[in-house]
Amino acid sequence: MARLSLKRLFRHRLWDEDDARRVLPADALARLQQRVAASEQRHSGEIRVCVEASLPLSYLWRDAPARERAVTMFGKLRVWDTELNNGVLIYLLLADHRIEIVADRALARCVEPNHWQQVVDAMGEAFRAGRFEQGLNDAIDAVDALLVQHFPRDAASAGPRPNELPDAPLLGGRRGL
Q1: Tell me: the pLDDT tens digits for 104-151?
Q2: How far, in Å, CA of 22 to CA of 79, rounded?
Q3: CA 38, CA 34: separation in Å to the nearest integer?
Q4: Angle in degrees, 0-180, between the axes of helices 113-128 and 132-150, rounded to the nearest 10
Q5: Which residues, listed in sequence order, are joined to residue 49 by a DSSP beta bridge?
Q6: Residue 86 and residue 106 in contact, taking contact as beta carbons nearer than 8 Å
Q7: pLDDT (tens digit, 9 = 90+) per residue, 64-90?
Q8: Does 159 score more than 80 pLDDT?
Q9: What is the largest CA-CA distance in the chain?
Q10: Which partner from 6, 31, 141, 168 sits 20 to 30 angstroms from 49, CA to CA?
Q11: Model confidence at 156: pLDDT above 90
Q12: Which of 70, 72, 76, 93 is nearest to 23 (CA)?
């Protein structure tokens, strides 16, 4: 069993939803939502963005990694439940300075893990410079390019494509989402 890190517990108790809103204010969230919506007109995939200020206490007691929470949120937000199994979750955990990308099985089969790491690394550079919206924009664009390459929208499709998941980014605080 993992040991609770008091330093990590303290750091997570300091971060809350207000911190997440300072990093990504309402106007930035609206622009990110528009970017996701525009992206999803170009392919058959679904993109979700989830930003949590800190982990719920149950994760901290187990010293669970950010990846575990990202995978949980992937399921909780039903990103795994898209018709073509090509949804992607871009997850940011502010208190741990962690970025995770979880891709559903159809897209995961097409993209090498090192490519996802390159996207995460680029986001990390932007975040370290305080450019959170830009880092998320770049990640959405990178995921968009992969989905267009592997799951382009059928040119024969008429009218708007069905939106299987909400486009709005999710922000969570100390209690999680």
Answers
A1: 999 999 999 999 999 999 999 999 999 999 999 999 999 999 999 999
A2: 26
A3: 6
A4: 160
A5: 90
A6: yes
A7: 999 999 999 999 999 999 999 999 999
A8: no
A9: 57
A10: 6
A11: no
A12: 93
End-to-end distance of the chain based on CA atoms, in angstroms? 25
Spatial contact of 86 and 50, defined as CB atoms under 8 Å apart: no
- ∠ CA 143-20-55, nearest 5°, is 85
Task: Give the type of residue at 63.
Answer: D
CA 3 – CA 161 distance, rounded (Å): 47
Is residue 168 within 8 Å of residue 26, measured between CB atoms? no
As a whole number of angstroms, the distance between CA 80 and CA 53 comes to 23
Residues 6+ apart with CB under 8 A from 104: 74, 79, 80, 82, 85, 86, 87, 88
d(CA 137, CA 69): 22
Question: Could you give the CA distance from residue 20 to residue 2 in angstroms, rounded to a whole number?
Answer: 27
